[in-house]
Model the fold of this input.
Amino acid sequence: MIPDIAKLAQRILIAPRDIETRVGLLAKTVKPGSPVVIELADVKTKEVVEVLEVDACLVATGRIPATKDLGLETVGIELDRRGFIPVNDQMQVLIDGQPAPHLWAIGDATGKMMLAHAASAQGIVAVENMCDRPRQVDYRSIPAAAFTHPEVSFVGMTEPAAVELGKAEGFKVAVSRSYFKGNSKALAEGETDGVAKVIYREDTGEVLGAHIIGLHASDLIQEAANAIAQRRSVNDLAYLVHTHPTLSEVLDEAYKRAVTAH
Done:
């Protein structure tokens, strides 16, 4: 999560609730029992700095690929260092960097975007290519969301990543923000916390990324995802008409602010 959205999420989602948070620490040991004893250590020094005694502990340490015992070695497939199946954007399995004939892989096992809708998109692309209809996955346009209240969603590049790309390709990056507190529907719903952030190229106006925290952010992000998929410019998007009063006007306002800023 990008810093400004994370800061707002902290204020909206964490601060008002009776939740204690720890950052910059790792659980060095977890001892089952009643209570469960957890030793928290500093990430850098690995020294124990706090011991917690709690009723229960949920361990959520990420996912690992279920790629063992698939017989991949029999056709010369080598997994990458994390155990994922190497593929290209056409979803062809790679051997020494080259596509293996008649062999495809999709989903979390490829180590790309581990999301259900990303896997579905990969499946469609794989079948299209099997049928000699060339197509590839555009990962930049695949959105993601956290279903908190309010929701958090994002698609495309973060601002730092966009700036790095701009340095490499010779363009400047700009940012436009709009706020739920100025949206009529959000006011009517009594849910005015939130912001939409649009990242775009200054020269062409092409949308590179969008980040939203606010009411129905997971639905709103789709408009930005479609814009990125089509490589649309804020210069065009700012003139599209949105229903009033709806939350969709939050992105509409961000596009309009981008145009008026230059």
Q: What stands out?
A: Residues 201 and 221 are 19 Å apart (CA to CA). The mean pLDDT is 94.
